[in-house]
Design a protein that fits this description.
The complex is a heterodimer of chains A (about 260) and B (about 325). Chain A is mainly α. The two termini of chain A are about 20 Å apart. Chain B is built from 13 helices and no strands. In chain B, helix 5 crosses helix 11 and helix 8 crosses helix 10. Classes of the chains: A mainly alpha (about 260), B mainly alpha (about 325). The interface between A and B is large, with 41 and 52 residues.
């Protein structure tokens, strides 16, 4: 089988699966908060596929119910970063000169930080909770979108159709929104898919550091933090949320690679 | 060439100034500060609070605090920790050396594992080895690095019955204890970056093999071994070396979570502790060092390209 087809099938299949789990977790598992006190820290079995945690909750149910919040936070953050960085980037590339210089320098300043470190600072500044986590991740990745959109807009602005639109008497705003922005959009969308696995890792790391969505939410990163004290006693607590993260990141990077090859 | 170089250095400096300014503003926006906690039982006493604030200069406007901090930094003074009362420079550089050692050993692992894998995969695109390496890079780049660390801890316990000492030993005290304490963190980070290195090497090799001069060499009847050694390796050596700089920056950033997991007193943990304790001078110093190293390495990588490859110079 051709390599591209494997990427599409595996990546696409996994993405659909994760989407289904995120949207309707109830179809796949019972309650993530149901407690069976007498059955604490049980190893995986036919009844509890992924075992139980320190309060007797079903790890499988928690991993399934954690998908929506974990992946939802990342998807929202990426979308927000894409809109924010994308529009500012298109504007900077199109307007040129002073606005470009100011925006580009600001983007560079944010890009100078390793993403996780910027994430730690931002998450501590904003405080815990899903909304703040989304905002922090969006600020980290907006500069990346800015650069991509700016480069694309610079290229488009030099094209003949932009000159033609101007000659026809269209206003600058119309040329930007109706022509340039539409041609910049595909690179921004592709960037969303490429950045998703990276943002997911940062989301998980912040959760692990206790700076993400706080417990008792079944967020995967937060679950990994809770599992730390039981690593050798109950390794399944750490294995399964991590595997979920691994598979979700893999699915989106496969899809990203397939899209990149298709675009060439 | 000189003009482009100066412009590049100027842009880097401007970025550094802007980045430290952003940091300065951001961390002062963090809710709560060190003063309340320092006062302990006498918290709520406005006179004591005002006195402490004035002592640390926190009563002045932010821009004035920034200017005096920046002035001190230019004279090589990063200030004094509000919590430990020690010079920030010492705290931050001690921590950085710990992180740097892990970073350099990790880089070595990544190169030793990643480059051969990438060469093997790239020399026959689409072959069985290529597929295997592709799978390896996919998994290693998708796994959260702290989770890889946790899995290593679990495996070490299950297979070897070995639990690593979660206490860091400096190499000056005992090299063997030091290596034992950084073994798993280096492996976790190394697996990730070996994937990155393998992917990069594969791309470079495969792209090079498609070049006309390689085809010409094949047409002249040169054996594959000679083509590989004389033409391919020489050409990808430069990008591979410069890539090391970028990977090192990535490792120094990604090490934060791993240091927390393995209780290593590196720059990442110092930074986290400074944020939690609202120790502004230490936090500023640690961030300045992180950003400074990242900007410097990026600049050096660009310079290296320009020095080695004349085609880049005009750009």
């Amino acid at each position: 089988m051709r390599r591209g087809r494997i990427e599409w099938l595996l990546g696409g299949g996994l993405v659909v699966l994760f989407l289904a789990i995120s949207i309707a977790p109830g179809l796949f598992a019972g309650s993530p908060d149901a407690v069976a006190v007498t059955r604490r820290l049980e190893a995986p079995s036919a009844e509890f596929w992924f075992g139980t945690d320190e309060t007797g909750r079903d790890v499988y149910a928690r991993v399934v119910h954690g998908a929506g919040s974990t992946l939802g936070v990342v998807a929202t953050a990426i979308a927000l970063a894409g809109v924010l960085g994308g529009s500012l980037g298109a504007l900077a590339g199109f307007a040129g000169r002073l606005p470009d210089l100011a925006l580009s320098r600001s983007a560079d300043a944010l890009l100078a930080f390793p993403p996780i470190i910027l994430g730690v600072v931002l998450a501590s500044t904003l405080g815990t909770g899903a909304g703040n986590l989304i905002l922090a991740l969006a600020i980290i990745y907006a500069p990346v979108f800015f650069r991509v959109a700016r480069a694309a807009a610079l290229m488009e602005t030099g094209r003949a159709y932009v000159e033609a639109a101007r000659t026809l008497g269209h206003g600058e705003w119309a040329v930007l929104t109706r022509h340039v922005a539409r041609n910049v959009a595909p690179s921004v969308v592709l960037q969303c898919v490429i950045l998703f696995p990276l943002a997911l890792q940062i989301q998980a790391a912040l959760g692990f550091l206790g700076l993400g969505v706080p417990p008792p939410s079944p967020d995967w990163g937060a679950s990994l933090q809770e599992s730390r004290n039981y690593l050798t006693v109950a390794p399944w607590l750490a294995i399964f949320p991590g595997l979920a993260l691994l598979l979700a990141a893999m699915a989106t990077s496969l899809l990203g690679r397939a899209l990149q090859t298709a675009g060439r | 060439m000189v003009e482009a170089l100066l412009r590049r250095i100027g842009a880097t400096l401007a970025t550094a100034v802007l980045a430290t300014g952003v940091v300065f503003l951001l961390i002062r926006a963090v809710p709560g500060d060190a003063i309340g906690e320092m006062l302990g039982q006498s918290a709520g006493d406005p006179a004591a609070e005002a006195a402490l604030r004035a002592f640390f200069g926190l009563d002045r406007p932010v821009w004035s605090q920034y200017l005096s901090w920046a002035g001190d930094v230019l004279q090589g003074d990063l200030g004094t920790s509000m919590r430990q009362g020690l010079p920030v420079w010492g705290i931050v550089t001690d921590a950085f050396l710990v992180t740097l050692q892990i970073g350099l050993v990790t880089l070595l692992v990544a190169i030793l594992v990643g480059v051969p894998l990438g060469l093997a995969a790239g020399s026959r695109p689409g072959g069985a080895m290529d597929m295997l390496v592709e799978g390896f890079t996919l998994v290693s780049l998708s796994a959260p690095v702290f989770w890889t660390g946790m899995v290593l801890l679990i495996l070490a316990d299950a297979w070897l019955g070995w639990a690593p000492p979660l206490v860091y030993t400096s190499p000056e005290i005992s090299l063997s204890d030091n290596l034992e304490s950084i073994l798993l963190p280096v492996l976790a980070l190394g697996l990730l970056q070996a994937g990155a290195y393998a992917q990069f090497t594969r791309q470079q090799t495969a792209a090079l093999l498609r070049q006309d001069f390689v085809r010409a060499a094949t047409a002249r009847g040169l054996p594959a071994r000679v083509i590989f050694g004389r033409h391919v390796l020489r050409n990808i050596a430069i990008p591979l070396v410069t890539y090391a700089g970028l990977i090192l920056v990535q490792i120094l950033g990604g090490v934060v979570v791993v240091e927390t997991l393995f209780a290593i007193p590196g720059l990442g943990r110092t930074l986290l502790a400074a944020i939690q304790g609202r120790d502004y001078p230490v936090l500023q110093g640690a961030l300045l060092l992180t950003v400074g190293v990242a900007l410097m390495v990026n600049l050096l990588v660009d310079l290296a390209y320009a020095l080695i490859d004349p085609r880049v110079r005009g750009a």
